[in-house]
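Consider this record:
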Amino acid sequence: MHKSESETLVTRRPISSGSIGLNPMLLMTGTAGGHTQTWEYAGNGYWFIGTKPQSDGSHNWDIQIARVKYPSSGTRQYTSNTQLTRLSHINRAGWDHNNDYDGSLLKRVEAAVSPSYNRLLIASIDTNDNGYFTLYDLNMINNQMDNNPGGDVSLRLCQIARQK
């Protein structure tokens, strides 16, 4: 994955290759691409990736998490976050534990999937550099995204994972 302040490119190449491929399989520009560190397998051929850049003065950090299919051939291009099934209003993650905050303070978001592929960790950082972390049931997130292709999915519809 190559990221800049204005686009995200994902390429595929053999491990034995000595160079980075310049022909992206996934190209995200405009409000689809920005600065993200999220590239996590979501299951069933889907991947989580950051989308919707917002400037903090030095970086265009992404403030939403999208789910995309990685193409088997050719290039899939997105120019807008609204073309993607995505989690937005991530400042509201953890709302049922009073762990949400005003959206104007949202600086960036990242996501990670547990090694067992049953949990999704949403991390959001506010403009004061405070971190907020919430675990979600990955199957529930994927089901909500399956039922809303190309749309916005509210985290309020997804169950927070409980520790057993």
